[in-house]
Amino acid sequence: MSAEAVPGHPGTDTGTGDDEEIETEAFWDYEGGFVDEATGIAGTVESDEEHGEGRQWLIDLTRTGLSDRVVYPEPVSGPPKALGDGTWYTVSDTGDTVRIWALS
Q1: Using an 8 Å Cβ cutoff, are 58 and 72 in contact?
Q2: Which of 22, 37, 68, 88 has the most crowded CB, counting CB atoms within 10 A?
């Protein structure tokens, strides 16, 4: 799936004036995975890093479309690691906690 469906990072300026244009197009990170047989998870953290907080996305694999942005209650770092049973894990921003997340 192309990352073209991912909206630009909130609060970015497209640079329409005389200034150099700022790249706001999102692209997928190198890592992602299958949360279950119908859902994938991937991030756009690398393309987001200049514009603010990195984002992660659930992807509906049955219709090949972006499902929803994952919003965590606390900062996470690194890519999501899918476990294939409807769950995935992330590491805390400080690197001292692993959290397991599930589809609701």
Answers
A1: no
A2: 88
